[in-house]
Amino acid sequence: MKYSPRSDGRKFIIPSFFFIVALCVLAFINEVRFDSFLSFGRCALSNVNNSSLETPSPSSGDDEIRILVGILTLPDQYPRRHFLRMIYGTQDVPAGVKIDVKFVFCNLTKQDQKVLVALEIMRYDDIIILNCNENMNKGKTYTYFSSLPDLFNETDAPTPPYHYVMKADDDTYIRLESLVASLRPLPREDLYYGYVIPCPSMDPFVHYMSGMGYLVSWDIAVWLKDSEIPKKHLEGPEDKVFGDWIREGRRGKNRFNAKWSMYNFPEPPTRCTHELWPDTIAVHLLKNQEKWIRTLNYFNVTSNLKPSKLYHIP
Fold first, then answer.
1. Alpha-carbon distance 48 to 54, whole Å?
2. Which of 53, 68, 73, 49 minimizes the C-alpha distance to 192?
3. Per-residue model confidence (pLDDT) at position 42
4. Is 194 left (phi over 0), alpha (psi -120 to 50) or beta?
5. What φ, ψ does residue 110 adopt, rounded to 5°?
6. CA distance 115 to 111
7. Residue range 21-42, pLDDT digits in tens
């Protein structure tokens, strides 16, 4: 047979044409699917972390975060409240973030309290007085969380009034900007956040969060108000009991262990302590002024002091 270059060329061109058309169709299909694939990947990655989150981070599109920090204390702790007002009142928070720091205690029992606390409220408006008798392990924590939905139910308030509500000790130093940064990627529903106990544990699903400071999403506060579970078990070590309620009610499916950004003051050293370091959200057990000053100096909290002829601080 005589060799014909033109004939062989046609045989090569026709299959090549159909191959190129098939590639174009495949590319078009993949382009359509690519955005969906990325969305799926982001959703999956948002759940793969050390807190075993079950829902993706909020998709609201705005950066607004509202946080209530309730510092449980006693009516007579006037100097401590004034000191903490300086600590939190001089901290900066990012734009779009609202953090209300409130001091929380039970009913007043003495005449001087009725005068002095009333003056504090008139001046600072940062006190919540719960309808309870002062106690350590007989329901004060429950009264605090379960009272919040009724205390903040104004019709003109945003919904929810706070995305997160926190309970903290008055010997804990919370770095508010670091707290906000840690919360940004987390869900705003069914969240239980804190320093997991026991100290060596890193699993937030085994036990409970330390009383140095733990935080839940607003829907858990509403659940505590309405559920019969906590009402049947009010007495006992309050933070452990809180963890029991969460477990029995199958709440807190999204948990975040903030260890070791939350820790006890480094001295005396224990399994719960950590050296002061930049990646800090909260330092606990600041039982005296020396420990407070060492902590505040480490984080250089007076760096923004503006110069003035009215004072000289070397």
1. 9
2. 53
3. 34
4. left
5. -125, 155
6. 7
7. 555 544 444 443 334 333 333 3
For the record, the structure tokens of 144 come out as: 């605090």
Tell whether the model's pLDDT for residue 275 goes beyond 90.
Answer: yes
Length of the chain: 314
CB atoms near residue 91 (< 10 Å)? 16
**pLDDT at 119 (0 to 100):** 98
Q: Please provide residue 113's backbone torsions phi and psi, each rounded to the nearest 5 degrees.
A: -65, -40
Q: In angstroms, what CA-CA distances link 164 with 135, 182, 266?
A: 24, 12, 28
Query: Which tokens hold the place of 60?
Result: 């609201």
* Longest distance between any two alpha carbons in the chain, whole Å: 120
The three-state DSSP-derived secondary structure of the chain is CCCCHHHHHHHHHHHHHHHHHHHHHHHHHHHHHHHHHHHHHHHHHCCCCCCCCCCCCCCCCCCCEEEEEEEECCCCCHHHHHHHHHHHHCCCCCCCEEEEEEEEECCCCCHHHHHHHHHHHHHHCCEEECCCCCCCCCCHHHHHHHHHHHHCCCCCCCCCCCCEEEEEECCCEECHHHHHHHHCCCCCCCEEEECEECCCCCCCCCCEECCCEEEEEHHHHHHHHHCCCHHHCCCCCHHHHHHHHHHHCCCCCEEEECCCCEEECCCCCCCCECCCCCCCCEEECCCCHHHHHHHHHHCCCCCCCCCCCCCCCC
Report the alpha-carbon distance of residue 97 to residue 302 in Å, rounded: 22
User: Are 239 and 137 a contacting pair, CB within 8 Å?
Assistant: no
Q: Are 155 and 67 in contact (CB under 8 A)?
A: no
Torsion angles phi and psi, residue 28, rounded to 5:
-65, -45
